[in-house]
Amino acid sequence: MAQKLKDDVRQAIIEAAKQEFLEKGYEEASMRSIAAKADITVGNIYRYFDNKEDLNKQILAQTGDDITKMLNGLKIERVSRQTRVFDVVTENKDINAMLDEFVEKIVSLSHDKPSEFNIILHNSELNSSIRDWFKSTISSLIYQKYSYLDQRTIRELLIEAYSAACYAGLLDIFEKARDDEYILKETLKNYLHRFFAMVNEEKANGSVY
User: Fold this and answer.
1) Which of 49, 62, 157, 194 is such that its CA lies 20 to 30 A from the CA of 164?
2) What's the CA gap between 168 and 195, in Å, rounded?
3) DSSP string, 35-81
4) Which pLDDT tens digit goes with each residue over 72-114?
5) ∠ CA 143-149-155, rounded to 5°
6) Where does residue 39 fall: left (phi above 0), alpha (psi -120 to 50 degrees), or beta otherwise?
7) 43 and 82 part of one domain
8) 60 C-beta neighbours (distance < 10 Å), count
9) Collapsing DSSP states into helix, strand and coil, what is residue 116?
């Protein structure tokens, strides 16, 4: 029971800090105000967290875990790594369905945790799970065309360039359309559909080694 009470207090502090950071921003947020929102003393906060920075890291870690769990459930099932096997129409349908699910989930998460999500989007250390997911998905798509030993350097350079460009586009759309959920979702879906179709169709339209 004592542990449950400690867990409840810790969670109350986290929820109060989220509200404080969202209302005032990280720099203007105060531990005194967070304590008041959590209905505890300031001294009690320091039994659970070293300082405001530590508290912020813990909050972001929770959101980062949510993003990682979301991405782990989104995989391409039908894309083959067999050289010279192409089914672009079928693959694009499967890819688009996966991308639509990605958009729905990530936009929902951004609205549930706007402050934490915004910080994560702009921090390269914290948003690595999203960028790695783009990289892994793009790698699956272009593997067929650049599967031989002498093509590996080309493949790796393209994967890095494509994934960086894809994430940059996602970030730009979030920046410009975050206040309109419908526009945000539709723009992200259109952007990702077109981007991944371009990558996927490259292997069918170009020469295959």
Assistant:
1) 62
2) 12
3) HHHHTS-HHHHTTT-SSHHHHHHHHHHHHHHHHHHHHHT---SS---
4) 888 765 444 444 333 444 567 788 889 999 999 999 988 888 8
5) 40
6) left
7) no
8) 19
9) helix
151 Cβ neighbours under 8 A, 6+ residues apart: 145, 209
For residues 127 and 188, is the Cβ–Cβ distance under 8 A? no
Residue 35 shares a structural domain with residue 70:
no
Closest by CA to 76, choosing from 156, 139, 130, is 139
Classified as helix, coil or strand, 208 is: coil
C-beta separation of 154 from 161 below 8 A:
no
| Structural domain containing residue 126 | 56-205
Residues 6+ apart with CB under 8 A from 177: 183, 184, 187
Asked whether 20 and 30 are in contact (CB, 8 A), the reply is yes
- The answer to whether 154 and 146 have CB atoms below 8 angstroms apart is yes
**Residues whose CB falls within 8 Å of the CB of residue 153, separated by 6 or more in sequence, listed in order:** none
Cα distance between the two ends of the chain: 65
Same domain, 40 and 95: no
pTM for the predicted model, two decimal places:
0.69
